[in-house]
């Protein structure tokens, strides 16, 4: 590559690093073009998967403060730049790696913090944002229902007591 091409490539990678909520590093040695295409489609619109030159990626990572990625930028490396939900991208990579053992999860970064390969797998085990929000809404709804029952319990108990006293007086009379 000519020097000007390298500068442009580093600038493009730097922008991808900056625009990503998470980056996930993988080794793709042994995967076919067809498999890589399938993986890219599986990641969807919220993530892009790019094979990168390690030296250029290292320079771009250092420029955005992700120096810790340098140790894993060796060998054939591809990076998933995640702009959407990191959990979904991590699940896709984990599932694809199960089907295709040639794909190896190396490491990553999320919100500027390093992620080990195990941390990426744990991230993949999390439920999606929508599921977690639905569970939280369910818990809140249950608490609101309990509070509504507690608020209505005393007046209804009072009404039942008054009805019982009225029935008792009618039977006594």
TrEMBL record:
InterPro entries: Ribosomal_uL10, Ribosomal_uL10-like_sf, Ribosomal_uL10_bac, Ribosomal_uL10_bac_type, Ribosomal_uL10_CS_bac. This is Large ribosomal subunit protein uL10. Keywords: Ribonucleoprotein, Ribosomal protein, RNA-binding, rRNA-binding. It comes from Schaalia naturae. HAMAP family: Ribosomal_uL10. PANTHER family: 39S RIBOSOMAL PROTEIN L10, MITOCHONDRIAL. One of its GO terms (cellular component) is ribosome. The lineage of its organism: Bacteria, Bacillati, Actinomycetota, Actinomycetes, Actinomycetales. The gene is rplJ. It comes from the Bacteria. Forms part of the ribosomal stalk, playing a central role in the interaction of the ribosome with GTP-bound translation factors. Belongs to the universal ribosomal protein uL10 family. The keyword Ribonucleoprotein applies. Part of the ribosomal stalk of the 50S ribosomal subunit. The N-terminus interacts with L11 and the large rRNA to form the base of the stalk. The C-terminus forms an elongated spine to which L12 dimers bind in a sequential fashion forming a multimeric L10(L12)X complex. Gene3D superfamilies: 3.30.70.1730, 6.10.250.290.
